[in-house]
Write a structure and sequence with these properties.
- The chain is mostly helical.
- It is 54% helix and 0% strand.
- The chain is built from two helices and no strands.
- The longest helix has 40 residues.
Length: 85
């Protein structure tokens, strides 16, 4: 009488439990992979920032040609009389 009940079939719950366990483990492994990849990118960026920068060459402005004093003397002065009406 006491042991005459059949054992319930719980194989569906077992499969669901394993599925959930494997999904959680897969998410955890994916998280570790992404964190490792981001860490490597950060390390690469920090190594590039640690390198000494190349000196920047600033181009020197070109000097304008020096004009002689005669150049200014030969120029015609602009006056009201010289304008054409």
């Amino acid at each position: 009488m006491f042991f005459q009940d059949a054992t319930p079939d719980t194989s569906g719950y077992m499969i669901a439990g394993f599925a959930i366990t494997f999904i959680v483990m897969a998410l955890y492994v994916a998280s570790i992979y992404l964190r490792n990849r981001n860490l490597q990118q950060d390390m690469t960026l920090l190594e590039e920032m640690d390198k000494p920068a190349k000196p920047v060459e600033i181009p020197q402005p070109k000097k304008s040609p020096v004009r002689s004093a005669n150049h200014y003397k030969s120029a015609k002065p602009v006056t009201k009389k010289s304008r054409q009406k």
